[in-house]
Please model this.
Amino acid sequence: MVLVIEFFTNVQKYCQQLNQLITKKMNNNIENLNNVINSAMNEVNQLTDNKSNVGLFTVKTASEWIEEAKNRPIPKMLFGEFWFEGEVCILFSDTNLGKSILAVQIGNSISKNEEIKGFKLEAPKQSILYFDFELSDKQFENRYSTNYSEHYGFDENFIRIEMNSDATHPAGETFEDFLLYSLEQSIINTNAKVIILDNITFLKTGTESAKDALPLMKDLKSLKNKYGLSILVLAHTPKRDLSKEITRNDLAGSKMLINFCDSSFTIGESSKDKNLRYIKQIKQRNTENIYNSENVCVCEISKQQSFLGFELIDYSSESEHLKNFTEQDRDSIIEQVKLLSSHGKTQREISEELGISLGAVNKYLRK
Model:
């Protein structure tokens, strides 16, 4: 009886071992088959990619583009309809109108996932890199404190970066190339997806020409695509005619900056009240032109709980905030034109300094 039980026990054990061997063999065959399939698919994809890429171009049918786009997330708002995820956006205005104040406010909003009143925020809480080429640390402290005390509490997600005054770029490498390299390394080290650059003139001084502006925009777009970034770039306007609406032509430098960015908006000063600003869309691709000259966002800059920021108070037409030139204003400008001309300034230099057209300068000099 004992021998019979032992026999059946051994049979059962051998059956289990046989079953394990069969299962292992089948799994190996399945794995090999999967490897063959994956290898074939990779070759097919490579052949397809090679067929799609023609020199500088990627050529696909409209249906293929749409199928690929379906797998990408819908861009979320970072600052209302003004700036969406995945965009290189330019914020420009004249000096001392609050570009940096608004940019920090936007970055703070994203880092805390706290919506700025009146401006939608759809993106989740996340890290942002604020490259500050304008303020010193002490100036920054003053702006976000009350007399250098009662400091505002930024989230750890808000990462501010400024130039290291002791650093030098390597021999044989330009300052601008090393700057872009350092910017990219900062992105890699922090894994941040939202970048704010304050301001563009620090990245490249020659943005007034297409020759310089185009490579800069290509560099920014390359970084955006490589790391899946959303980039806000601050820029200046030269002196302008305050009686006229702000347009894309008012961005300092080459129109290439506007042509190659995804979106752009501007800050204007109200002639009704020096404390008022208005925000206006200049270019957009992910939305309609909602905040145009007939519907600008009117804001007031104020400090609340040690934080300096924009507060939305109304919507209105841009024309309500433009300056109405009187005959006395006109006479004053004519005098300035003639004075600058007598000091050897060219008509173009006078035009840029006073913010009036070349035609107006020429006309005033003939009076």
